[in-house]
Amino acid sequence: MSDVPQTQARPDAGVQAREWSPDELGAAFERQRRAFLAEGPPSLAVRRDRLDRLILLLTENAQEFGEAMDADFGHRPASVSTLTDITGILLDIEIIRRRLGAWSRPKRPLAALRPFGLAAKVERVPLGVVGVIGPWNFPLGLVAQPAAAALAGGNRVMVKFSEITPRTGALFAAKVAEFFGPDEMIVVTGGSEAGATFSALAFDHLFFTGSPKVGALVAQAAGKNLVPVTLELGGKNPVVVAEGADVAVAAEKTMAGRLMNGGQVCLCPEVVYVPEPVQEQFLTRALWRAREIWESEDGPVSIVNDANFARVCALVEDARAKGAEVHEAVPGAVPDAASRRIPPVVVTGVTADMDIDSEEIFGPVLMMRTYRSMREVVEDVAGRPSPLAAYWFGPRGEDFAEFTARTRFGGMTVDDIALHVAVPGLPFGGVGQSGSGAYHGRAGFDTFTHARSTVRTRLGISMGEALNPPFTQTRGISPDRMLAKLAQAARRRVFGRGKS
């Protein structure tokens, strides 16, 4: 990879997403706001109908969406797009639809207090108008899935589609307009200016999937209107190959996971920690698997655009120039700017001064580090920003317990890669630098609804009376006596019965 070709403009580089003006965005938002206030919370039948229309939109146009994503990427097999952006998310939508009635049913806690005249109810109510900002790596699936959860919650939805995949965005916008009224769901396209205006709208909730850098800007813009934000970001996802693991299996699965979607997945492994005695075995097997994928009939997914192609190449060359060793899966193959394909490599000897050590790669490049004790791994992972995912291969004994207890990450798969995001119904989200909030299944429904409490009382006391003089006693209840009893109970728990 030492001779990296200069990036070239592709014949289709002039295709751009339609830029929505601030006035258009404001008008679309106000239309949805008025419709929500006029209708109020939609019935379960209306919500299910909206989910069914979204399912039809995706299934009846699957081939067109696959062709659009293939064109946007330069090369992306239809099977990849169908599995990741359509079939994979439909399972989650079906679960939401099936359980929507149970999730929406009011809960009645504090049943033991009802005979004393106190009754409580908790309802899940819609938020209002929800904004969804999508990424380019799974351009359809990662807007349709949160949009489905928002619709299930009874909200109106505005989607900001990534400008990096303009054909898919234009097609999705057109199909949404066929299946939904603009006061139900609408798709917005455009570049950074439209994105900035979109982020600053006074949504009732804003959902963003993308990089931590852009996520910080989105959260800052939303914060000016006190809009709550769910951030689904990424990070340097670690893989730990424990002592006693099947090294060959771990190497093959890790490399296959690294090359998913051309390495352009927020859940892709970034760095693998391998015991020193088996490093050569792991490296050899990983490179073999990478070469097998590279030489397959469909070939690897292309890097999405020239800018990202150049960025990934630059990360590898920076590491090489600063002393890292770059192990090529396909000896002699070099990155091709015309097709935007980068031969997969494994990089060893990475140091802190290399850009690849801290920047998310988002390409077919895997870093490998060796270790002698699990403490080394734990201290390295715990000392970095929390990743979106962590992976573990091997026995789940004391080392596994230490790793999971002392490190933070959004979710984990054991003995495979990214499986936890594919199991329908499980909550998915990051923590710290990798995001905040969650969705999928019940977590998505809860994200886009508000838990509203209502209390009815026939008690003989009043909050207003309790908070007005005289304070010594209110309807036979002494605040001082209550405080003394609570303090006594706390002392017993802290110091033990009979001590003070």
Characterise the protein shown here.
The chain is an alpha/beta fold. Helices cover 43% and strands 15% of the residues. The protein contains 17 helices and 15 strands. It has helices spanning 22-39, 44-60, 62-73, 78-104, 141-152, 166-179, 192-199, 212-223, 247-258, 279-294, 306-321, 374-382, 398-406, 419-422, 441-447, 463-466, 479-495, and strands at 118-126, 129-133, 156-160, 185-188, 205-209, 229-232, 238-241, 271-275, 325-328, 345-348, 365-371, 389-393, 411-414, 435-436, 449-457. It has a seven-stranded mixed β-sheet with strand order 9-10-11-8-7-12-13, sandwiched between helices. It is globular, with a radius of gyration of 27 Å. The model is unreliable at 1-12 (pLDDT under 50). InterPro entries: Ald_DH/histidinol_DH, Ald_DH_C, Ald_DH_CS_CYS, Ald_DH_CS_GLU, Ald_DH_N, Aldehyde_DH_dom, Aldehyde_DH_NAD(P).
The secondary structure category is: alpha/beta
Query: Into which percent range does the helicity of residues fall?
Result: 40-55%
Strand line-up of the largest beta sheet: 9-10-11-8-7-12-13
**Beta strand count:** 15
Biggest sheet layout: 7 strands, mixed
Rounded to the nearest angstrom, the radius of gyration is 27 Å
Task: State the helix count.
Answer: 17
Mean pLDDT: 93
- Principal-axes geometry comes out as globular
Strand content: 15-25%
Q: In whole angstroms, how far apart are the ends?
A: 72 Å
Low-confidence stretches: 1-12
Family: Belongs to the aldehyde dehydrogenase family.
Protein name: Aldehyde dehydrogenase
Keywords: Oxidoreductase
Pfam families: Aldedh
